[in-house]
Amino acid sequence: MILAILQARVSSTRLPGKVLKPLLGIPMLLRQIERICRASLIDRLVVATSETICDDPIEEMCRSSGIHCYRGSLDDVLDRFYWAAKEFNPDHVVRLTGDCPLVDPRVLDQVISFYLEGGYDYASNTIVPTFPDGLDVEVFRFACLEDAWREAFLPSQREHVTPFIHQQPDRFRTGCFKQQQDLSHLRWTVDEPEDFELVTRVYEALYPDNPAFSMEDVLSLEEHRPELMNINAKFQRNEGYLKSLVKDATTGAEKT
Fold first, then answer.
1. Which of the following CATH numbers is that of domain 2-255: 3.90.550.10, 1.10.10.60, 3.30.565.10, 3.40.50.720?
2. pLDDT per residue over 58-88, tens digit each?
3. Using one digit for the tens of pLDDT, what is the confidence trace for 118-143?
4. For residues 238 and 234, what is the distance between their CA atoms, to the nearest angstrom?
5. What span, in angstroms and rounded, lies between the C-alpha atoms of 251 and 156?
6. Bridge pairing between strands 22-23 and 26-27
7. Helix or strand or coil: residue 42?
8. Long-range contacts of range 177-182, CB-CB < 8 Å, 24 or more positions apart?
């Protein structure tokens, strides 16, 4: 079984409540789920949110939409992920984050197929990014997630789930899924108000005529309307992970 776990919380520091912000009248998280469910290789989807009161609306939204929701630690996302997966005891886990409403189901299937056909322990299109930021897909064996849950201790490993796995290529067989054209400079994730403005304009332009619009459709839109790319071009990729690495330095010193 291939289980997709979509992590989401309301308490985002840069854009609070972003996952519930309306995107053409529907919460952004539901728009993303709508796209994820078009992937053919995912057997089950779980939303993993925190136990804090502010995330109650996420659970309520999931319940009213018939989506399974697991609630766990706010800061120890690895622990939250592990227990969300443990309930289903899957063979494979797909990690997704709730700030990617432009996720492409075809890319999801491509990365999953690459992972399965290569016999990898972990595969993603993120270690060597060639896709726009916001189309991130990570796939790994549940057994590897269990190893990480037991052994990882650095903040970056607990907050971002997978570094413990992909940072050890000698222990875990790792695959990097890349495309020929490098589009990693494009920012389609939602962390800032400008990001949400871009995504809103994309949905307004594409969704009414084609709810299943693809990555190629967004690229074509930006080609014809290049001003869109300037809306959020000033922001850095993986800012949250870089902040966790700063915490690692202190934690590593405490362990010595």
1. 3.90.550.10
2. 999 999 999 999 999 999 999 999 999 999 9
3. 999 999 999 999 999 999 999 999 99
4. 13
5. 10
6. antiparallel
7. coil
8. 177/110, 177/111, 177/114, 177/115, 177/123, 177/124, 177/125, 177/137, 178/125, 178/128, 178/130, 179/125, 179/130, 179/131, 180/130, 181/130, 182/130
Helices (H), the chain: 28-36, 56-65, 77-86, 105-118, 142-151, 155-159, 163-166, 193-206, 215-224, 239-255
For tokens 């919460």, name the residue. 27
Q: Is this model's pTM higher than 0.70 or not?
A: yes
- Report helix, strand or coil for 205: helix
Burial class (CB within 10 angstroms; exposed 0-12, middle 13-18, buried 19+) of 56: middle
Token digits for 10?
A: 């309301």
Residues 6+ apart with CB under 8 A from 200: 23, 24
- Contacts of residue 59, defined as CB under 8 A and 6 or more positions apart, other chains included, come to 49, 69, 71
Question: For 77-116, how does the pLDDT look when each residue is reduced to its tens digit (9 = 90+)?
Answer: 999 999 999 999 999 999 999 999 999 999 999 999 999 9
71-89 per-residue burial string, b: 16 or more CB within 10 A, e: under 16? bbbeebbbebbbebbeebe
Sequence ranges of the domains in the chain:
2-255
Q: What is the pLDDT of residue 238?
A: 59
Chain centroid to CA 148: how far? 18
The single residue listed with the structure tokens 């074509």 is 220
